[in-house]
Amino acid sequence: xxxxxxDHQIEEEESASSSEPQKSKAITTPSEQERKKxxxxxxxxxxxxxxxxxxxxxxxxxxxxxxxFNALVDAIDLAQLAKLDLASAQDEIRDIVNxxxxxxxxxxxxxxxxALLEDISxxxxxxxxxxxxxxxxxxxxxxxxxxxxxxxxxNGKVKEAGIFFRxxxxxxxxxxxxxSQVGRRVDEASPICDARLSDGSRVNVIVPPLSIDGxxxxxxxxxxxxxxxxxxxxxxxxxxxxxxxxxxxxxVRCNVLISGGTGSGKTTLLNCLTGSIDLDERIITCEDSAxxxxxxxxxxxxxxxxxxxxxxxxxxxxxxxxxxxxMRPDRIIVGEVRGPEAFDLLQAMNTGHDGSMGTLxxxxxxxxxxxxxxxxxxxxxxxxxxxxxxxxxxxxxxxIQASRLRDGSRKVTHIxxxxxxxxxxxxxxxxxxFEIEGEDSxxxxxxxxxxxxIARPVFWDRARYFGEEKRLxxxxxxxxxxxx
Length: 484
Ligand SMILES: Nc1ncnc2c1ncn2[C@@H]1O[C@H](COP(=O)(O)OP(=O)(O)OP(=O)(O)O)[C@@H](O)[C@H]1O
Ligand SMILES: [Mg+2]
Fold this sequence. Notes:
This protein has helices at about 10-15, 30-35, 60-75, 80-85, 85-105, 110-125, 130-135, 170-180, 230-235, 240-250, 265-275, 315-325, 340-350, 365-380, 385-395, 460-465, 470-480, and strands spanning about 140-145, 150-155, 155-160, 190-195, 200-205, 215-220, 255-260, 285, 300-305, 330-335, 355-360, 400-405, 410-420, 425-440, 445-450, 480-484. The chain is an alpha/beta fold. Helix 5 (about 85-105) crosses helix 6 (about 110-125) and helix 13 packs across helix 15. It binds adenosine-5'-triphosphate and magnesium ion.
């Protein structure tokens, strides 16, 4: 891991330095004794418990840090360091930094020294000030607007992150380091870049001149523990009965569209649905940035590719879906439908790839259907709108709506079936809807997932074919008027 970061600042310093690697003596400071007594105080051991520095540091801090950083790079053997595990590498850095502080007679308190050590360790071994946030598992999104403005989303609420970069140049170099890990680059010539961290977190970088105030970095953190339908029930995003209905929808190979606003939990829901796919099915996933975590043994994962600097080599979602069709898939799962690939997905659903699924940005099932229609129209397919609607009706069975409510909670708000076409209008029927009823004393929204009383959904025959009709009837019965 460490060896792959050689492209950044250290590498330049390394080649500039001709000094022999200095073997460090362990200088045990009082703070280190404390640290060894209490492994939880180790920065990398459990940073979730370490409060991030709430204030931006002053200029003199950065001067001292740069001075020590440069002296460290001169003294350290990077090749050796790269062979160490994280804890030993940190100890090595700690020892050398302590030596430098003593040798150069720098005066600082133990607390300052600890903060500086953490900072330098993060710079050398991780992604600088970003590192403590990346280590936390409770964060859903990290949004860096510029070197001194950063926000995080925790429990559905956005708040200030309390981290600061030295300047936009440091932020830019961290952005470059992140994207270079997946063989991409970001600079003035190609100022937009999607990437992925080694843990699977989705990253987007946009830099000047397109972003006015400096590089902007957005990270959708990858959850280590994959959420399941049971977890969604525990989080009160859905009732057990509705979760059962979703699991049946996934199993009996309904074609599903998951609709929702940004960050509403679409990808998570898609992941959960795939949990009920039988183990012997061949599944092919197509994504812009591979986020899905399917557990089945027979999965092929495909990812789109942006154009290179010469504007060549772009592989778009349409290319992937069309290629999928030649790969004998049982199901095709599309991470996000946002353009003309909508046509290819519908075609695939219509031609024997039942049980295919995709997500789409929209605020209601009806809006999802009309967005799908306009994606096809705008994709340049000169089809009359009635034909497109017929295609939608014969392809999509169910639309599931995910929403992030104003109290930060995420809910499945609709499980809606596409029923048919009446004249030129697509008719739908809701099986389950979430209705907000009020707010409790803590500002949390209260509501009910209600069954609309439909006892025989359109996919009933399909459920019977898969031997799931009893489970479906039972879940629909129990779903009526459940409070969550
Ligand atoms: N029901 C839920 N309860 C709690 N957290 C959830 C729930 N669903 C999703 N999350 C969390 O919310 C965040 C966003 O989820 P997800 O990536 O699925 O959203 P999305 O709609 O696909 O976002 P985007 O529009 O950016 O693709 C993730 O951190 C995820 O773990
Ligand atoms: Mg998503």
